[in-house]
Input
Amino acid sequence: MLKKELIFKIKRKIMEYESKMNSYKKSELEYLNRVPSIYDYTISFNDFKNFDLIYTGIILGNNYDDFESIKYLPEDLIEAFNDDNFEFIKRIYSAEEGDFNDFIAYEVNKYKMDDDLIESTRYFEKFRKILKLINEKDFETISDFFRCIYFEKDSKAKYLEDDYPDIDVISKEERNFILETDNVEEFFDRIEATKKEIKLENKRLNKLYSDKITKLNILINNLEKNTNGEEITNIDELLDYAGEEFRHDILIYIKENNKTCNEKLERKYLNLKKNSISKFINIFGKNNIDFMLFNDAEKKIIMSRGYDFVERIINFLNKIGYEFKNEILLIIAGTNNDILSSIEEFIKKDYINSEFVRNNINVLLPSNDLDEVSYNLLTRNMNLLLDKGINIKGLDSDGMDFYVSSTELIEDSLSVIEESKVNIKTRNLKNYNFLGEEDLKGKINNLKELGISINSNIEVLNSDINIIKRIKLCNSLGISIYDENNKIKKDILNKDLFFVPDSKIDEYVNEKTLVLN
Output
């Protein structure tokens, strides 16, 4: 490698580190800095913007993957919302998803919105999704806070006109009471705390990048001082400045440059290579795998992924309690850092857990074939529910099998749920495996024919198909299927607890006619 090429490569890395300085949550900090203190707000209400606190609520909720991706509303719409009363924003937040188009049409007609705002109604659904990133408690705090704005006389006069009959104008005493509540003070305290956390993390990262930049600049200076063809003797010093990222490149450069000391450099080069192999042998050995039993082609595949990447995979598999099997080579060869990061994020968000990954290890692998378990299948099925606002946090370990069911079947089941007006958006539901059933529609229809209120007994959807027969048998015998809380009894929902063994249920109940022995 030529010195000029090596220096250029190092400078590019320096530029990369420089670009990362102060980049951690840069946009979030920018928005948080727009929000004055609660004291500033109380003495001057003319410098606020609705969107400042809306974005602040989103940031504090930390329920997004990429903050940049949510800033896609047109400027004219943002300006309109900034100028509008916050009550309209509250109505958008509270609007039901299924009736949203009717809601927009009603609002446009009722409040005689100007043409620019009406033209932007196609963005309201996106705006609503942005608002839903704010948790309910914070949104109520923001809402209460903005009510304080309209105690001013000018605002009161404006919003008491016939065109604004339902604006909630509060008194000065009410305004002062709201501003002194714990919720408002705690909200602004969290803003300051979050700003401090972001600044501290940037400071830590800046120190890390600065140290790397300093070492690389010293490395460049050392390389520039060396005359081409002159023997390089400060090998250890250069390797120290190079770090792991350029250690191999520096050795190649020195080897090519020092024509008179090839033997010495060859030993260093071979030693470095040997040590690299030793690192793989060591990490596999710690996990009871003999690295040397892999054939040469397999070793080449593993080592081509880099030690850091292999170490990350092994650490992740250990963390989820996965017992190393033959799949380790397949995983190392097939997965990548982006997939690992996503899976770790899904676990962190409680969308899935370690047990699910252990039992479905192929979710670490990409595949365009959605008929087989893969990362693509998992994310597609996951997004089907998230896009419909269905809660998938904290599911039961045995309630996640639907993630690896046929995507087409999941889509059909969601359509059946909507057509049947069954509400599965309750936080009490911790198992969505019924979405992977072949005949969910038939099951729902049978339950309704038996007079079962599915929305009041949502867990019945996850019961096995013989739940219908168990209910029929109880009805025939005059046995109530409900407990004291008007919920279907557990011994009826669970075939293993029912007084008739599941293997003999057909002896008592025929598909068409109830038969008692």
User: Anything to note?
Assistant: Residues 474 and 481 are 7 Å apart (CA to CA). Residues 182-225 form the longest helix (44 residues). Confidence is low (pLDDT under 50) at residues 151-167, 511-517.
